[in-house]
Amino acid sequence: MKSVGIIRELDHLGRIVIPKETRVLLGIHMGDPLEIFINEEEKMLALRKHVGVACKMCGAVDQLTYFRNSFLCSSCVHDLKEGKNCLQYAEEESAQTEPKERRTTRNSDELLGELKVLMAKHPTYTQKDYARLLNTSQPRISQLKRLMQE
């Protein structure tokens, strides 16, 4: 067993706080059950995250199979084999959607000319409106307006 050099005192109710670094290292989250082990000879207390004997997916306790550090019931195994109640990975879904249209790069003179035309047609529009119409960002419109003033 390894000593990490962390010392904690019991509070007035006999409780102890497990440091966050230790919980993260051991994969212990709020509400996780812990097993307590006692070695009377060495007066040592040990804690371990409890792995319950129940189906990881539905919580059933009958007809369990141990697979990759988890218990699965026969019903869930059957459903997995048939693909029932399964969702596609987000990566597969995003691959099926159309890619977003990329902005085209235009030089300042070109954008400046288009902005002047838009400002003449629509003098009450905001910078955000101009940015949307020119397919650029609002800060870029602000830069172009400053260039116009110079």
UniProtKB/TrEMBL annotation:
Record's keyword annotation contains Ribonucleoprotein: no
Keywords assigned: Plasmid
MF (Gene Ontology): DNA binding
Lineage top rank: taxon: Bacteria
InterPro entries reported for this sequence: B_subtilis_Trans_State_Reg, SpoVT-AbrB_dom, SpoVT-AbrB_sf
UniProt xrefs under NCBIfam families: lp_hng_hel_AbrB
PANTHER family, alphabetized: PTHR36432, TRANSITION STATE REGULATOR ABH-RELATED
Protein name: Transition state regulator Abh
